[in-house]
Design brief:
- This protein is of the alpha/beta class.
- It folds into 2 domains: 143 residues, Periplasmic binding protein-like II (D-Maltodextrin-Binding Protein, domain 2, 3-Layer(aba) Sandwich), CATH 3.40.190.10; 89 residues, D-Maltodextrin-Binding Protein, domain 2 (3-Layer(aba) Sandwich), CATH 3.40.190.
- The protein has 7 helices and 13 strands.
- Strands 5-1-6-13-7 form a 5-stranded mixed beta sheet. A 5-stranded mixed beta sheet has the order 10-9-11-8-12. A 3-stranded antiparallel beta sheet has the order 2-3-4, covered by helices on one side.
- The radius of gyration is 23 Å and the shape is globular.
- The N and C termini lie far apart (70 Å).
- The relative contact order is 0.17.
């Protein structure tokens, strides 16, 4: 064996050791399976390439980037979220979960990472306001249009999706539409004819739920979100999707 061949063999051995070491580290990391809702635009949804995207998808990626955990996003049925967490089919619920969901005494809950409220969105290009008001179903804003009997105000137009409400605003079917802040900011970011009037008679905070025994992971996530906010990366993600910083300031 000549000197050159010996050097080549040594280099190959070093490369193999480095690859094996990296593979071992990746394999030894605990994988956190995050339960997400793929039908909650702009928080988490599938784009035209059928890939998960949205504010929460970006935030989750940034939180776990370079950390001691691998992360896997698992699309879940919203109604089954707590059952899946209890059965350990997922390790946390990270899909627009609010502090109003209840049952939190049984879980380890992060500090709020996003603030949401009810707002009114106007189409400033409409010359008349002699048309109906709209309300986005599933939003907190709908609470103001339900009477003591639990009946909805039948003088309002109700929209099942954010996109339906956008089309109605554009075409002048409604002069204004009540919805959540996150949807309003998302729509107005790319539709300059829309103007937001903040009402905030009701507000809520978004949190992540872990099993109680995973409180260490929960604490680590809290620290990462705070670090990302202090570094300005959170604001960058928030501006990308909402055109505003929706991080809770208190």
């Amino acid at each position: 064996m000549n000197k050159k061949s010996g050097i080549v063999i040594i280099i190959v051995m070093v490369v193999c050791i480095l690859i094996s070491s990296l593979a071992w580290k990746m394999h030894s990391k605990k994988t956190i399976t995050v339960g997400v809702d793929a039908e909650y635009e702009p928080m988490c949804f599938r784009n035209d390439q059928n890939k998960l995207c949205g504010f929460e998808a970006d935030l989750i990626k940034k939180v776990f980037e370079g950390g001691p955990y691998n992360v896997t996003l698992k699309v879940i049925n919203w109604e089954d979220k707590f059952e899946m967490l209890d059965k350990k089919e997922i390790d946390c619920i990270w899909c627009g979960l609010t502090g109003e969901e209840g049952r939190f005494m049984s879980y380890s809950i992060t500090k709020p990472y996003l603030i949401n409220g009810d707002v009114c969105v106007y189409n400033i290009k409409l010359k008349t306001n002699n048309c109906d008001d709209g309300v986005l179903l599933g939003s907190n804003a709908i609470n103001r249009f339900i009477n003591d009997k639990g009946e909805m105000d039948n003088t309002k137009l109700y929209f099942r999706t954010m996109r339906e409400s956008l089309r109605a605003l554009r075409k002048g079917r409604v002069h204004r539409c009540y919805m959540d802040d996150i949807h309003a900011c998302y729509l107005s970011k790319t539709n300059k004819q829309l103007k937001i009037k903040k009402i905030h008679s009701y507000s809520e905070s978004f949190v992540v739920a872990f099993r109680r025994e995973d409180y260490r992971v929960k604490s680590w996530v809290d620290k990462q979100i705070k670090r990302i906010y202090n570094s300005g990366e959170f604001v960058t993600i928030s501006n990308k999707w909402f055109g505003d910083d929706l991080y809770p300031k208190k």
